[in-house]
Design brief:
This protein has nine helices and eleven strands. The chain has about 350 residues and is an alpha/beta fold. A hairpin with a 2-residue loop joins strand 3 and strand 4.
Length: about 350
């Protein structure tokens, strides 16, 4: 039975979820939810029982010292609630964890139980996949849904994907069958520089989320992190002539494909974002405050990752599948991946719970 003691009645709540693992290329999606949690000072109010869903030989717990006392962080999925201030306050339920090892249907049902008890009106699941996209261009972000009515009203693509799927696809379908509106946002990460972090892809997801739920998100240092990431990859790619030539071929293919799409829609979207930030937008107030939750002592907070320098780009293998290891890469093939986004950054503060 789900008990949510200490959580007040929420205002127009939206659940935003991301999971480390198969659906999280470059840690872009999990870092986006971690950024929201950090900026709005979220406090964990619930966590799923790790024993029910995780194989600890795959996702191992970590031991750490807190003032000389040894403590354990268990790999699991945690939920926090933040209230975004401004003229029109609203609440976000943040779900951040690791793709479960087992019992996916029970996992989704438990999350949907929380969504029902909290009165969640929309579930947005973030994901990232590997693709043939150059790091020098805006990150493509596609929005997909299984609900044809939602696709029409929110200008999304109705997914037509068939094939293996991850927890993002399973949770979206579970929401659809339960009558809960659900959307998945997918960022394409260059497959030749797939190691985390990827702040540029994280920022692209946050910008698309802003547009989707009409909410101003404080970006902190993400823009600067994104520029630094791109500059670092530029320098590393320039050291290898084959990689530089490959990146140029991706740029030419991308520019050719986008030429007919360089229309007023993308320009209008960027202008609306500019106005929202200049005028404060629907939630132009300060970072907001977290809603007090129940006893979180058994579920220890995670320490942020200390990864900084972008990894060396991998030399492209002409015979390799560019989407390999990307998770639900094909699930996002249907949408127009040229439609969004930003050229900026992310904060890789994903849970350090895997060994």
């Amino acid at each position: 039975m789900i008990e949510l003691e200490g959580v007040p009645e929420l205002i127009d709540p939206v659940m935003v979820a991301a999971f480390e693992g198969w659906n999280d290329a470059g840690d872009a999606a999990s870092a986006a939810v971690a950024h929201l949690d950090k900026e709005w000072k979220g406090e964990v109010f619930a966590a799923l029982d790790a024993e029910d869903y995780y194989d600890f030989q795959v996702n191992r717990p970590t031991v750490w010292l807190d003032g000389g006392v040894r403590k354990i962080t268990w790999p699991t999925t945690r939920l926090s609630v933040v209230r975004v201030g401004g003229d029109k306050p609203r609440d976000l339920v943040l779900v951040r964890g690791i793709e479960p090892s087992m019992r996916w249907r029970s996992f989704c049902n438990e999350l949907l139980g929380f969504a029902h008890e909290l009165g969640v009106e929309l579930v947005v699941i973030l994901g990232a996949l590997l693709g043939d996209t150059p790091h020098t261009r805006p990150v493509p972000v596609s929005g997909v849904t299984s609900d044809p009515d939602l696709a029409r009203t929110m200008d999304l693509e109705e997914t037509k994907y068939e094939g293996p799927t991850g927890i993002v696809g399973i949770l979206q379908e579970a929401c659809t069958h339960a009558g809960v509106p659900a959307v998945s946002l997918w960022a394409a990460v260059p497959h030749y520089v797939s190691q985390p972090p990827n702040p540029k892809a994280t920022l692209a997801l946050l910008n698309r989320l802003e547009d989707l739920i009409d909410l101003r998100i404080p970006l902190g240092e993400l823009a600067e992190d994104s520029r630094a990431w791109q500059l670092g990859v530029d320098q590393l790619a320039a050291e290898d002539s084959e990689v530089a030539e490959y990146v140029q071929s991706l740029e030419e293919a991308r520019d050719t494909a986008e030429l007919p799409e360089a229309s007023g829609e993308a320009i209008a979207r960027e202008f609306e974002r500019y106005l929202r930030r200049r005028d404060g937008g629907p939630s132009g107030g300060p970072a907001g405050h977290a809603t007090e939750g129940g006893d979180t002592a058994p579920y220890l907070r995670d320490t942020p990752s200390e990864r900084t320098r972008p990894p060396r780009p991998q030399r492209p293998d002409p015979g390799a599948d560019a989407s390999g290891g990307s998770g639900d890469a094909d699930e996002a093939e249907g949408p127009d991946t040229s439609s969004d986004t930003s050229t900026d950054p992310g904060d890789d503060s994903s849970e350090d719970s895997q060994e």
